[in-house]
Amino acid sequence: MGSGAADRDGATSMRDADTDGLPTFADVARAAERIAGAAHRTPVLTSRTADAMTGGKLFFKAENLQRAGAFKFRGAYNAISALPEAARARGVITFSSGNHAQAIALASRLLGAPATIIMPGDAPAAKIAATRGYGADVVLYDRYTQDREALGREIAQARGLTLIPPFNHRDVIAGQGTLALELIETAGPLDVLVACLGGGGQLAGCALAAAELSQGCRVIGVEPEAGDDGQRSFREGRIVTIPVPRTIADGAQSTALGDLTFAIIRAQVTDILTVTDAQLVETMRFFASRMKLVVEPTGCLAAAAVLNGLVDVRDKRVGVVISGGNVDLATFARLTGAAT
Ligand SMILES: *Cc1c(COP(=O)(O)O)cnc(C)c1O
Predict the structure, then answer these.
(1) Total number of domains in the chain
(2) Where are the alpha helices (DSSP H) in 83-241?
């Protein structure tokens, strides 16, 4: 695939232009069955204030209230459930900036699989502590100098573990898609679905669900302005890799889409937009003050685009993903101005 991103992702360049390996809506439906009873069916919230601000009818999928605090539990639980018994017993390993780590740690505990997590040393303290709290073995690395994927493969091989990456994985993408499946089941057909974008698991999975359940629904991904690799990839038609972006959206600091997520996004997504850190902070304040929700910066991506008028939502039924709520209380207070 020409780009280093796909090559670095391990054995992915072999699938160049081959869509046979891509998940489909059937995988999303199977994931919904697997996670039923384990994942929360999170609420779909509405806000007259948000509707009045935008002129649309907004349906917020509150994945900040998901187990382990983010939508990532869906993909993690689905992927570990799908493993053969023997592989599950040997254990799983992953690398993550936080929420996927916690999700894997919790899901693996629930499913009886030992978990090893490779996390950046500068990840929020609450995320590192929570991951250890779920019983996982946490290995820290330096995100600016070390290649986490190479490290992951090394440890996986040495210990016989199954690597479950945070987004470029068929069962992870399918699991994330269940959030859109639930959203559309609850809210009804949508004109627009706006998702948060890091490596593209959420956006790709949601696009699969929307295409099947809400025909004609436009699907839009939103990423941090400093990390616009998704937008550039979408527009250039190839996976663009960027240096680790500096943004408060720590769950969207991925440097490139995966080959699987890119293929689905390219085929099914309408557009990719970017928002600034300042717009994310404004949106955190909105959620806290108007909707009484604690949302982490990354979890505000989709809503920030909608509330700032970047998406045409007038008189439309709009799904908005609130993707996570894991933020240190001190950081939350500092960013929202709640600290005195
Ligand atoms: C991981 C994450 C994202 C981005 O999801 P991808 O599947 O990597 O695109 C968005 N929001 C939160 C809260 C996350 O943890």
Answers:
(1) 2
(2) 85-90, 99-111, 125-133, 148-159, 170-187, 201-213, 229-236
Answer whether 200 contacts ligand 1 (Cβ < 6 A). Answer: yes
Phi and psi (nearest 5°) for 119?
-125, 150
Q: How do residues 267-325 score in pLDDT, each as one tens digit?
A: 999 999 999 999 999 999 999 999 999 999 999 999 999 999 999 999 999 999 999 99
What is the value of pTM for the model shown? 0.91
Quote the crossing angle between the two packed helices 25-35 and 201-213, to the nearest 10°: 100
Query: Which is it for the CA torsion 180, 183, 186, 188, positive or negative?
Result: negative
Q: Is the per-residue pLDDT at 252 higher than 50?
A: yes
**283: CA distance to ligand 1 center in Å?**
17
CA distance 155 to 275: 36
Query: How far is the centre of ligand 1, averaged over its atoms, from the C-alpha of 200 (Å)?
Result: 8
Whether residue 4 lies inside any domain: the answer is no
Helix, strand, coil fractions of the chain, as percent rounded to 5 = 50, 15, 35
Q: Could you tell me if 182 and 307 lie in one domain?
A: yes
Ligand 1 binding pocket includes 72 (Cβ within 6 Å): yes
Residue 301 belongs to a domain = yes
* Residue 128 zone, left/alpha/beta (φ > 0; ψ -120 to 50; rest): alpha
Ligand 1 atom with minimal separation from the 296 CA: 13
**What's 272's domain CATH number?**
3.40.50.1100
**17 C-alpha to ligand 1 centroid (Å):** 25
